[in-house]
Amino acid sequence: MVVFHSDLDNTLIYSYKHDIGSEKECVEIYQNREVSFMSKKSYDLLKAVKDKVIFVPTTTRTQEQYNRIDLGIGVPHLALVCNGGVLLADGREDIKWYEESVNLVKDCRRELEKSEIYLKTDEYRCFEVRNIRDLFVFTKSDKPERTMDGLKGILNLSLVDVFCNGIKVYVVPKKMSKGMAVQRLRKRMKAEFVIAAGDSEFDISMLHIADIGIVPPKLRILSGERKKIVRADEERVYSDWVLEYVLRYMDKKGQ
Contact at 8 Å (CB) between 103 and 184? Predict the structure, then answer.
């Protein structure tokens, strides 16, 4: 059994602001606007990938945000949303998984509360402060590095990580990483082999947990890791390269 965990935004799908060429398919509509796309090639390749592996979208998006996406393959049998804190099985939430997730981060509740209090008074904040289902905290900042510095000065960094992705700022318990979620699901499924693809700091933990981790050329990742890290070709649309790699791997495995 081969499981393929893939991040969504900037790994498989792209904002309308991102140039992936004219041959593309809309995969997300929000407030009557086409906001996210896949390259036509990736849209077609994903159908082939789905038939050869267990495909598990693995995203920091909330369930509501995830449900706006239509990848053209129907509802995936499994999906991890809320940075892995919520498992969807055929589109329905696995309550036991969520309860386990909340229990995993119970020692971080005070840190999340402190981050909310700090962010509500942060002069650089430009968006509401959201506590995502008691799993992590999110907002946006005009000066994310300054906001992150303030958070790091008051939080216990042995319990939580502070990330930024563009202007988005997150406080995430270390036990609520994508890597932890991939590890939990692998144990539950008794998966023999795991491939993972991602593009940001959020994804590094699952790339290290996987047997093969696929990264774009510019993602900085620690060298010397035990697991195999594969870098995509800079000249290609990243999603195209990722899906072609998975298909090549499975074809080779089947020989």
Answer: no
Q: What is the per-residue pLDDT across 86-139, written as a single tens digit (0 to 9) for each?
A: 999 999 999 999 999 999 999 999 999 999 999 999 999 999 999 999 999 999
Distance between start and end Cα atoms, the chain = 16
Cα 124 to its chain centre, rounded Å, is 26
Q: In 146-211, where do the E strands start and end? A: 160-165, 168-173, 193-197
pLDDT tens-digit readout, 27-50: 999 999 999 999 999 999 999 999
**Measured distance CA(3)–CA(8) in Å, rounded:** 16
Task: For 208-245, write each residue's pLDDT tens digit.
Answer: 999 999 999 888 765 545 468 898 887 889 999 999 99
Report how far residue 97's alpha carbon sits from residue 104's, in angstroms, rounded to the nearest whole number.
10
Neighbours of 24 (CB within 10 A): 22
How many C-beta neighbours within 10 Å does residue 203 have? Answer: 29
- DSSP strand pairing (212-215 vs 228-231): parallel
